[in-house]
Design goal:
By secondary structure, this protein is of the alpha+beta class. The protein is 24% helix and 34% strand. Strands 1, 15, 16, 17, 18 and 19 form a six-stranded mixed beta sheet that branches. Strands 2, 3, 4, 5 and 6 form a five-stranded antiparallel beta sheet that branches. Strands 20, 21, 22, 23 and 24 form a five-stranded antiparallel beta sheet that branches. The model is unreliable at 558-567 (pLDDT under 50).
């Protein structure tokens, strides 16, 4: 039997367990990291900066521990150094050329090759604010629904070959969302951009109820941004939220993922996501960069916008600003251009949407040197050089034409009217209702036509053109045509003290030609049966403004025109 001596020393086992204060600090760090990732949603990419304050906050509890305090100081020093370096490598003083090239190649083009001649029945007369007001009125007819939802931002989209404003219904608050998490909001509204009486409340698509579950006004996992972020897109910037309909009328959100091209600035798209508004299914489409923009071959045709307008306008500003480098922006400012205030979306001859904005010289308040049209899918950008008026100058000119009514002009749409670049804008009263329409020449904003209908405004504008310098200048973008024929009818209309003549020719049935005595002193003497030689810009319209006229029956025989006919 073995005896144990009570005086024999016992072996002691020492374990270096973390101190309770350190364990609590680590636990708090883990909690902060999860909290920040879920609620703050920082972009985890070195070309962004919002991850830096996120890390600074997440490790803050460790700063107050004795063991790790000195290491956390190094972390903060590194973060501060990173911000400093990032700002230096992004500074325009070093990267002016890179900023200018972000937009890509800017092509010079002829206006009429990109913007088709306008059809009176296809001119958008409903702007975003008016569409929202019409949708609000329609929503107000359903009191039960109107009390728990609000309208989202209207998006103009081509749907089945027609232009509509598409407006989602969104949750009006946290408790409204909480009561409808399973169903979402039950509809969207379509408002025709052409006809304000065409408003459709869409509750069902293909016999199935509409449910908009994933949306910006939802919370937690149904929040649209968080839904994208937690599905593998933590390293991308998320922007360009657009509500669009596919070919079957199903609602989707189209989202642009972007990174920065110049240090931590200059956002540029790299991917497009489409998210089904009910199921949350995410479809990804890579954007392949080309010499003059991006390839959109893999993106569904129903998607109208990939490139956010805000990105395009900022990049156009850089393109015009850094034309001669950074130092030119501070001193001589030679050849510098800037984007005019405001922009619009127009549709081209290819039925694609374009961001439109004027370009003006730096320091010029009223005039433009041209305008740009940038494809919202591919970012292919076209510059049309032409001196003229800015959009706001044109708006003031139109308002001055009806100043006794105190109507306000909406931001104009660029249209092609008989080959001439023309601003079109509805005129609203103080209640926001459209009362009249106006056409204003881009080249000379004193040439204005207004009327209670689009046709009346167009006629008034054409008569103003026929007696103006602008109307007599042939545009390179439009092909000139001539006609020698016999007058079959002639009529007179007097507006604002000016006489306009309406002519029809035997050789051109169904067409009406408009001119003033400024074209020829012989026009007031013209009667049916006279032989006239006229010139005009080719157009599909049936009512045409003349740019020159000669009465061959009255003028000397030595200047007589060839035999009747068209050329």
């Amino acid at each position: 039997m073995m005896l144990i001596n009570p005086k024999t020393p016992r072996a002691e086992i020492k374990m270096n367990l973390p101190k309770p204060k350190l364990v609590s600090a680590i636990a708090m760090c883990v909690f902060l990291i999860l909290f920040i990732l879920y609620f703050w949603i920082p972009v985890l990419n070195p070309v962004f900066l919002d991850w830096i304050p996120a890390i600074a906050i997440a490790v803050l509890p460790l700063f107050f521990t004795t063991l790790l305090n000195k290491y956390i100081k190094y972390v903060y020093a590194f973060l501060a150094l990173w911000v400093l370096i990032a700002l230096l490598v992004s500074a325009s003083i070093f990267r002016a050329k890179d900023y200018r090239n972000v937009i890509g190649k800017v092509n010079q083009t002829e206006f009429s090759k990109l913007v088709s001649p306008v059809r009176l029945d296809q001119i958008p007369t409903v702007d975003s604010n008016y569409a929202a007001a019409l949708a609000e009125k329609t929503l107000g007819e359903d009191f039960a629904l109107g009390s728990r939802v609000t309208l989202g931002r209207p998006t103009r989209q081509m749907v089945d070959g027609k232009l509509y404003w598409v407006i989602p219904l969104l949750h009006s608050g946290f408790f409204k969302w909480l009561a409808n998490t399973a169903e979402g909001t039950p509809a969207y509204i379509k408002v025709s951009a052409i006809n304000p009486r065409d408003v459709e409340f869409v509750r069902q698509v293909q016999g199935q109820p509409v449910r908009v579950k994933y949306q910006p006004n939802a919370y937690f996992n149904q929040d649209l941004r968080r839904h994208i972020y937690l599905h593998g897109y933590m390293g991308y910037g998320i922007g360009g939220y657009t509500f669009e309909l596919d070919d079957q009328g199903q609602p989707h959100w189209t989202i642009t993922l972007f990174t920065h091209e110049v240090g931590v600035r200059a956002p540029n798209p790299v991917k497009l996501l489409t998210i089904h508004a009910e199921t949350g299914k995410i479809s990804e489409y890579p954007l392949i960069k080309t010499a003059d923009g991006f390839s959109d071959e893999k993106v569904p045709a129903w998607v109208d916008r990939i490139q956010p307008a805000e990105f395009i306008l900022t990049q156009l500003d850089w393109w015009g600003k850094y034309v001669r480098g950074f130092w030119n922006t501070l001193f001589s400012k030679r050849n510098m251009l800037m984007v005019t205030a405001g922009y619009n979306i127009v549709y081209g001859t290819d039925d694609r949407s374009y961001v439109y904005s004027g370009m003006s010289s730096v320091g010029a308040d009223e005039g433009t040197v041209g305008f740009v049209l940038s494809d919202t899918r591919t970012k292919r950008t076209h510059l049309y050089k032409m001196s003229g008026a800015t959009e706001y100058a044109a708006m003031r000119s139109a308002e001055g034409k009806v100043q006794n009514y105190k109507y306000q002009a909406t931001f104009p749409i660029l249209v092609n009217l008989n080959g001439l670049a023309t601003y079109f804008m509805p005129l609203k009263d103080s209640a926001g209702l459209v009362k009249q329409f106006a056409f204003v020449s881009v080249k000379d904003y004193s040439v204005v036509g207004v009327g209670e209908t689009i046709k009346a405004a167009r006629d008034d504008y054409q008569m103003a053109l026929s007696s103006s310098r602008v109307g007599n200048l042939a545009q390179k973008a439009a092909e000139e045509a001539s006609l020698t024929g016999t007058v079959s009818r002639i009529g007179i209309d007097i507006k604002e003290g000016k006489t306009y003549y309406f002519l029809s020719f035997t050789e051109a049935p169904g067409m009406v030609f408009i001119g003033s005595s400024d074209l020829s002193n012989y026009l007031p003497l013209t009667k049916a049966g006279d032989l006239l030689s006229v010139k005009y810009l080719k157009t599909e319209d049936k009512e045409i403004s003349l740019i020159s006229l000669r009465n061959d029956s009255l003028e000397p025989a030595s200047q007589a025109a060839p035999a009747p006919g068209t050329e």
